Amino acid sequence: MMAADGKKIWMDGRLVDFDDAYVHVLSHTLHYGVGVFEGIRAYSTSKGPAIFRLKEHVDRLCTSAKFYHMPMPFTAPEVEQAILETQAANGILPSYIRPLVYRGEPALGVKNLKGRVSLAIGVIPAKKYLGEGSEAGVRAKISPFRKPSSESIPSFAKASGNYLNSYLAGADASKDGYDEAILLDSRGFVAEGTGENVFMVRNGTVYTPGLDSDILLGITRDSVLRIASDLGLPVVEKQLSVNELISSDEAFFTGTFAEIVPIKEVGHYPIGTRTPGPITRSIMDVFFRVLKGEVPQYEGWLTPVPPLPEVALSGQP
Fold it and tell me: Which residues are registered as beta bridge partners of 28?
């Protein structure tokens, strides 16, 4: 029987009721943070529900699992299909989809690689990650916590334990009354937000930190780079100083949950003269039309969500 609210979680090949999605309290991932995950969005389009850049998210999930010696229990196409099934079973739009690869059996010991690797997929309603009204701009502070070097923790992997760093930075910013934090890399250059990449605009050129700043290769970041280039805007990936950021004409965050959010203030320094700035606005306009399926050029970024077969919904083999 389905849970009262009808929500389902996909766990290792089957849909289970939301309230029955359990893992053991002594699981390796719970104790050591050795898990990898993705954040994925589904939207309503003129052709029905669709998931944004599904393949790219699943590819990154598999790469993250490889970094952490977690043999994926399913192939990439099987994971894509499972995500589509989970979205269809829950029917939430817009939604935020969370696949998690983890060791859920009792398996204590930091070096323990014997616990079974599992995959779970959940779906929740998508809200404004940085708050209602964030499209008009948010206030951010430079965090006292630095982003770890990739020589210590690989930034290529979207790993659960990595986000302790983001939690500390975000909690500090919130307690100081800011909407978000901006972390610097180990050398003092701008890295990223707690869950977003950072962009700035100066003299008509779009800038963003590159891999040498130990960033996560964001999929929304990649989308914005391509949109900006297609709009004819010069795009540069480089190390960015705090001074460059606070003296920029425009700045904005990008991320799956955050989408695109203008930055109106860094610390006590206002960014530009209006938020969003004209270049940020032009990129946002295209991006949000893409999510609705209104830009044929980027239709390949949207994967339609087919109806869930009754046999799968009923949980029968």
Answer: none
Regarding whether 283 and 211 lie in a shared domain, the answer is yes
Q: Going residue by residue through the chain, which has 317 residues, state the pLDDT in tens, using 9 for 90 and above.
A: 344 366 999 999 999 999 999 999 999 999 999 999 999 999 999 899 999 999 999 999 999 999 999 999 999 999 999 999 999 999 999 999 999 999 998 889 999 888 899 999 999 999 888 877 788 899 999 999 999 999 999 998 999 999 999 999 999 999 999 999 999 999 999 999 999 999 999 999 999 999 999 999 999 999 999 999 999 999 999 999 999 999 999 999 999 999 999 999 999 999 998 899 999 999 999 999 999 999 999 999 999 999 977 435 434 33
Co-location of 265 and 155 in the same domain: yes
Both 144 and 274 in a single domain? yes
Sign of CA dihedral 103, 104, 109, 112: negative
Strands in 147-298 per DSSP E: 180-184, 190-193, 197-202, 205-208, 235-237, 250-255, 259-266, 269-270
CATH number at residue 276: 3.20.10.10
Residues labelled as active-site residues = 158
248 with 170, same domain: the answer is yes
Whole-model pTM over 0.85: yes
146 and 16 part of one domain = no
Looking at the structure, do residues 223 and 256 belong to the same domain, yes or no?
yes
Print the domain residue range for 71. Answer: 8-126
Q: Give the sign of the dihedral formed by CA 241, CA 242, CA 246, CA 250.
A: positive
Kindly state whether residues 172 and 189 are assigned to the same domain.
Answer: yes
